[in-house]
Write a structure and sequence with these properties.
Number of domains: 1
Shape: globular
Distance between the termini: 19 Å
Number of strands: 5
Number of helices: 4
Strand order of the largest sheet: 3-5-4
């Protein structure tokens, strides 16, 4: 999946695409989208300091779904922990923006 907007040009990695397919199968895309849209914004990436996301958005019926979500976000350059703490890596905004667009499209397509 390749995304290009006025601000962003990024490509998802093959590993991310596989995790997105698994997310779609598990029907957790909408919760992942809400996590990314609500908390992983440009404001979160100012500096390299730890920030926190709503840990309730990391609460899934099965632990595998939580781990899948954490892995998906980490592949975008943000070290996300089970407690909701997150540390941005080097220039993660573009990768997270590409993830957001992919999740948004999957959410629309899956109804």
């Amino acid at each position: 999946v390749w995304v290009q907007t006025q601000f962003v040009s990024a490509e998802l990695m093959e590993d991310q695409l596989l995790l997105l397919l698994e997310s779609l199968d598990r029907k957790i895309v909408s919760q992942q989208l809400k996590l990314v849209r609500t908390h992983l914004t440009l404001a979160s990436f100012q500096g390299e300091e730890t920030f926190f996301v709503d840990a309730r958005l990391l609460s899934f019926p099965h632990e595998e779904e939580q781990m899948l979500t954490i892995a998906l976000v980490q592949l975008s350059g943000v070290q996300l922990q089970e407690d909701g703490s997150a540390v941005p890596g080097d220039q993660p905004f573009e990768a997270v923006a590409a993830l957001f667009v992919a999740l948004y499209a999957l959410s629309l397509l899956s109804g």
